[in-house]
Amino acid sequence: METQKEQPQEGNEKIEYPKVIAGEDVLLRKRREKLFGIDYADRLSENRFGIALSGGGIRSATINLGLLKTLNKYNILEHADYISTVSGGGYTGAYIQATLKETGAYEELFNDEHITYMRMRGEYLFPGTGWLKLWNQFVLVISYIISLIMSWISPGILIVLAMGLYAMVDDNFITFDKEAISAGTDQLFQYSAVALAVIFLVHYIFNIALNFNLYVSAYFNIAEAVLVGLVFLTVVTVVLINFSSLRVPHIPDFAQKLVIGVLLILLGFFANPNASSFHRFYRKQLADAFMKFSGTNRNVLLKDLCQVDSAQQADFLAPYPLINTCLNLQSSSDPNFQGTKASDYFLLSPLYAGAKLTGYVHTAENYGYNTMTLPAAVTISAAAVNPGMGIYSNKVLSILTTILNLRLGYWTWNPSWLKTTRPIVFWPFYFIYELFSRIGTDKKMVNISDGGHIENLAVIELLRRKCRLILAIDAGADPNFTFADLENLTIRARNELGVDIRFRPGQIPEEIMRPHPSHGYSLQRYAIADLYQLWDKVVKDGKEVIEHYKDKKIGTMVYIKSTVTAPEGRPDIPKTDFLKYGTYKYKIYHPLFPHEPTSDQFFDPIQWEAYYQLGQYMGADVLGLRRLDDRTKPNARVITPDELIRYFDEGEPLFLPIIPQVDEIPVSMDALEKSIRPRGVDVDERFTEEEEKVVEKDVEYKM
User: For 482-492, how does the pLDDT look when each residue is reduced to its tens digit (9 = 90+)?
Assistant: First the structure.
């Protein structure tokens, strides 16, 4: 369905996704006009270009950094209209968005200082060496313990309220030997006060004081402060009334119980699970690792990344970000989304937030979204562990993760319920919803988590927008090369959007990317697919109908997978030279590379460099470069989306003449890699063997 030009709607009404795309087009045309001229802006529907960065934690982030550095050398990143991210790909996306917002120059991306810092922060959850590393590990453990204690406040409120209600019916339900207890009243009071002080002091130190400005909004700061006060007041009141000789005799028992009940109920309105989950610690660590050099924009609001009415070029510099999360729907009443593993795509972006099922709202004008920051959105998109996990949900795991507070997901405002005022929520009920998998869209709040819980390649939103060209980077863990994420995307695209992803003859990923059993290396790092619209929903005579098509090509997708196309041989290279030689030598001693498990989120500098260099090789292969060259960005030519489309569709080379070889000392190895032409031709013509020299340079990194 052709996207119409339309100004974004005003107000707090629920918006359907065709109007979301129309609103984005207004911004994209203005961006194109500011950066490349009016003629290029008018051709948006002809050459709409998007880049998708897959999930995969620190592995994905590092590979994507290397690949985008290569694309940036030829101005390809700047020409992208969209950058769609999910999970670990969002780490890289956040670096690009925040850095460009701060510096206003693509030349500042991927500079030596930035890369050196991120290499040393590969163990981003507890970075550093020696005592600093031990300290950060201690912080991680303490943060979890405090978050765990805080998370039990909600069920504690419900339990105490239930006991209180029953006690009002049966006076013998709770009895105290006041004389026996009175002797220990003073100590009990002191220990309770000290325990509360320590718990909340540690909570403040490690979740507020170290990085106060990385909160989603000031609301959570106020909520925690009130939470501390109410908990303390409640405990003290219970001690005084039930255990202390200071009990006031003229206050009836009913009034005393009523006071306690009111305090507990008030406490329930502030016991926000987002403030007690591990989300904040995770967010701080990601911001420290990937947004170090973004200055005042380190905690930039999501709505401030792009502004249609802005006159500042910095507001249009970066590609429009599409941050993908998963809307968990285990108890949804919608007949199309029922079941324990039901889910929907929930978008977080500068202009709009929401899902197709809930509708969308304006990010800048709606409570809960107008205060959301870029680090918060990226952290939600990477919330891999959560009671609700989309297609990976499990009721038993939901109980365990809730009780143990293994919750990285996020409760956000339901767009279909959202009004101009802030919703009033009694949070203890939401603990029960998570515990028993009763998450859905029939409540004021909805639960969102890692976008990889529904689609891990971040491509689906680019297909919705009918991008003419999509570069899809798959940096997920796939040691057996089952291509599960690609299969999931292919099925969803066909069933949900009517888009058929057809890989060309000789470009079947299983054939050219799966490592050869005899030598363990792949033939190629990318495969080209044509995108065909099989059916689409269109409006005719005021009614929405489904229109079918036959071989209607709408675009091209280049699927790029983290593979190693290394030459044959196992040279004798000392382990001490890993950093010098990078990718190929790392694989010799780490055969799982580049598909080491995602549970490994602790990259040392050598491991980080191997994945980073691999990303650069992947980018160079996609552009037709036989190897990385030494030309600096100012001397490199600009490659436009039109040239990329001709290159992938017609085989028109991007570089003429071929980049000459530089005189260097090569490592003696026989080549295994085969070159595959990108255009659709016969298989016999497509495969040609040629020799390749692998050149290695002594590179001194600033360690």
Answer: 999 999 999 99
Q: Which residue pairs from 399-407 have beta carbons closer than 8 angstroms and sit at least 24 positions apart in sequence?
A: 399/435, 399/436, 402/431, 402/434, 402/435, 403/435, 404/148, 405/144, 405/147, 405/148, 405/151, 405/152, 405/276, 405/277, 405/278, 406/278, 407/151, 407/273, 407/277, 407/278, 407/279, 407/434
Residues 454, 561: Cα–Cα separation, whole Å: 19
Strands 543-561, 526-540: pairing is antiparallel
State the SS3 of 495-552. Answer: HHHCEEEEECCCCCHHHHCCCCCCCCCCCCCEEEEEEEEEEEEEEECCEEEEEEEEEE
Burial 10-34 (b: 16+ CB within 10 A, else e): eebeebebebbbbbbbebbbbbbeb
Distant-in-sequence, close-in-space partners of 479: CB < 8 Å, separation ≥ 6: 592, 595, 597
DSSP state of 110: T
User: Among 171-185, 395-409, 420-434, 610-624, where is mean pLDDT lowest?
Assistant: 171-185
Q: Residue type at 597? A: P
Residues 563 and 593: beta-carbon distance below 8 Å? no
Give the sign of the dihedral formed by CA 327, CA 476, CA 86, CA 602.
Answer: positive
Where is average pLDDT lowest: 91-95, 449-453, 578-582?
A: 578-582
Amino acid 338: pLDDT? 62
Strand partners, 301: 373
CA dist 65 and 586 (Å) reads 18
